[in-house]
From TrEMBL, chain B:
Gene3D superfamilies: 1.20.1050.10, Glutaredoxin. Keywords: Transferase. It comes from Callithrix jacchus (White-tufted-ear marmoset). This is Glutathione S-transferase. Residues 85-207 form the GST C-terminal domain. The keyword Transferase applies. GO terms for molecular function: glutathione transferase activity. Its EC number is 2.5.1.18. Belongs to the GST superfamily. Alpha family. The keyword Transmembrane does not apply. InterPro entries: Glutathione-S-Trfase_C-like, Glutathione-S-Trfase_C_sf, Glutathione_S-Trfase, Glutathione_S-Trfase_N, GST_alpha, GST_C, GST_superfamily, Thioredoxin-like_sf. Residues 3-83 form the GST N-terminal domain.
Length: 299, 222
């Protein structure tokens, strides 16, 4: 899987903007604790972001990174890995990690640990709306979870073969993400509200969401949710199933096809690898994570 | 012959309004079936028309689509309002997701408790002025083109202009320091299809009032 674009093209359009993300990084570097000396310098980030926003014209910018550039046209320039900026936890970035992992794409992560780091990203103009998740990929500084997910799904051919398949994937994913949003919210609520939310999650999973997907699988009898082919819908569904099972281990007891689906998708090699210890999958949020995020985002 | 798309919702803006805007901008005529009672909603559910028991639902091209994002994505693709490739689509998505976040805050305002209202309005004003409007102004400034993405009309422009009208209803002063947004609003409003939509008698719905909220509470039981 190749990423990024020849540095020469970018240098041509953007002066000496050093586009750090095009340099290959080893996975071990990515897994090491963030090192201040390796973090993008303010100038680099500012130039990167300035180039992204204020280059000759946005259209030319897209053309540079889009049609005019042939992948692998510059020998010796290694493909850049996507880089994820977020807290060291699941939150809104986890679905993105799943998608990248499912595609077998290595990625780097920079973990926000202080308010200062976060403010720096904001000041450097990397965050269009001042928020993370942020993913640097293919020369873009993408924010907004769904924008990132949709881009990656299309890029990895996880988005169906035509518009009709795509809309089905969108519907299934949106429903699943609604369920997951409730789970994501719960740790940040007061204890009484949290209990209510979690109870509601289980109730909705069993009464509203899981029956739909059980029926979809039953009606077509295929291995995957859409188009008899592994797609974003399957990845999102598995992630959701595992998250709900963490709250209530027997939640799939009335859904035999979803149970079989879970096993089947979990055994896809890239997913199997992601589900093993030592992968970049993050653990469920704990009190420390909640404090960290509350402090950094100041709420 | 393909029928017109049919929108199922109650007679108010809510989560269906951006869909109305997009269809209207694309010059697509549509029908609407309004839910007027809790029974109307139950019937749709019982007939198996609502995948997740929720509206909006749009009947289009032989499908019963639910989830506003899925519906908007479909319409935008079908009517070529979604950029020319996946990179343009990523930018459009990033922009429209930001718009949706602000839109949601204003959308939910009528539902908040009276004692919270002033705080929420202040938050909306602050985010509009310091986070959202500057972001879109900066995008327009960066390329100085007439449209947000790819020098071509896309859903991003239509959804932004809808948002600008929405914000204006809350506080007309917020757009005053954003000349490019003002220019975009004027330009997009003058597109023939949207000009028509902005006139009285179109399917555009009026601002939500207390009566709408009561109706929603009755139909959706909350």
């Amino acid at each position: 899987m190749t990423f990024g674009t020849p540095a020469a093209f970018q240098a041509e359009d953007h002066g000496d903007c050093s586009l750090r993300q095009l340099k290959p990084h080893s996975l071990s570097q990515a897994m090491a604790p963030p090192d201040a000396s390796k973090a993008p310098t303010e100038l680099q980030c500012r130039m990167l972001c300035a180039s992204w926003y204020f280059s000759c014209s946005l259209e030319a910018h897209i053309v540079v990174f889009g049609e005019r550039v042939k992948e692998n046209s510059e020998p010796g320039i290694m493909a850049a890995k996507p880089k994820l900026y977020y807290f060291h936890g699941r939150g809104r970035m986890e679905s993105i990690r799943w998608l990248l992992a499912a595609a077998g794409v290595e990625f780097e992560e920079e973990f926000l640990e202080t308010r200062e780091q976060y403010e720096k990203l904001q000041k450097d103009g990397c965050l269009l709306f001042g928020q993370v998740p942020l993913v640097e990929v293919d020369g873009m500084m993408l924010t907004q979870t769904r924008a990132i997910l949709s881009y990656l799904a299309a890029k990895f051919n996880f988005y169906g073969k035509d518009l009709k398949e795509r809309v089905r994937i969108d519907m299934y994913v949106d429903g699943t993400l609604d369920l997951m949003a409730m789970i994501m919210l719960a740790p940040f609520q007061r204890p009484e509200e949290k209990q209510e939310t979690l109870a509601s999650v289980i109730q909705k999973a069993k009464a509203r969401y899981f029956p739909v997907f059980e029926k979809i699988l039953k009606d077509h009898g295929e291995d995957f949710l859409v188009g008899n082919k592994f797609s974003w819908a399957d990845i999102q569904m598995l992630e959701a199933i595992l998250m709900v099972e963490e709250l209530n281990a027997s939640v799939l007891s009335d859904f035999p096809l979803l149970k079989a689906f879970k096993t089947r998708i979990s055994n896809i090699p890239t997913i199997k690898k992601f589900l093993q210890p030592g992968s970049q999958r993050k653990p469920p949020p704990d009190a420390h994570y909640v404090d960290l995020v509350s402090n950094i985002l100041q709420f | 012959m393909a029928g017109k798309p049919k929108l199922h919702y109650f007679n108010a803006r809510g989560r269906m309004e951006p869909i109305r805007w997009l269809l209207a901008a694309a010059g697509v005529e549509f029908e609407e079936q309004f839910l007027e009672s809790a029974e109307d909603l139950e019937k749709l559910k019982n007939d198996g028309y609502l995948m997740f028991q929720q509206v909006p639902m749009v009947e289009i091209d032989g499908m019963k689509l639910v989830q506003s994002r899925a519906i908007l994505n479909y319409i935008a693709s079908k009517y070529d309002l979604y950029g020319k490739d996946i990179k343009e689509r990523a930018l459009i998505d990033m922009y429209t997701e930001g718009m949706a976040d602000l839109y949601e805050m204003i959308l939910l305002l009528p539902l908040c408790r009276p004692e919270e209202k002033d705080t929420k309005i202040a938050l909306i004003q602050e985010k509009t002025k310091n986070r959202y409007f500057p972001a879109f102004e900066k995008v327009l400034k960066s390329h100085e083109q007439d449209y947000l993405v790819g020098n071509k009309l896309s859903r991003a422009d239509i959804q932004l202009v809808e948002l600008l009208y929405f914000v204006e209803e809350l506080d007309p002063s917020l757009i005053s320091s954003f000349p490019l947004l003002q220019a975009l609003k004027t330009r997009i409003s003058n597109l023939p299809t949207l000009k028509k939509f902005l006139q009285p008698g179109s399917p555009r719905k009026p601002p939500t009032n207390a009566k709408s909220v009561e109706e929603a509470r009755k139909i959706f039981k909350f």
